[in-house]
Amino acid sequence: xxxxxxxxxxQVKSTEAFKYYVSGVGAGFVWxxxxxxxxxxxxxxxQPEKLGLNAENYLDILGRQVQFxxxxxxxxxxKPVELILLSGLIRARAFPCQTx
Length: 100
What we know:
mainly alpha; 0% strand; globular
């Protein structure tokens, strides 16, 4: 889903449906991190162990990343929402990884 698609989607679909979608994308990233950790590979981002993220957290991170990209000339209506969320999770302000 692109940002342009997101705008259209939010106009047509309910907010709850979008929350479920974003929550599912976030859960996919958590599972990807789990697989990477089991393989002793670097994770996509470093979520604190005792912090469970939910749809509201993901939406907040997504919103902050959209704003960050807009403020820094990085916004692109063709960029997938999933990539924007992952970029927000990776950014140091969201979940910094401790250097080994």
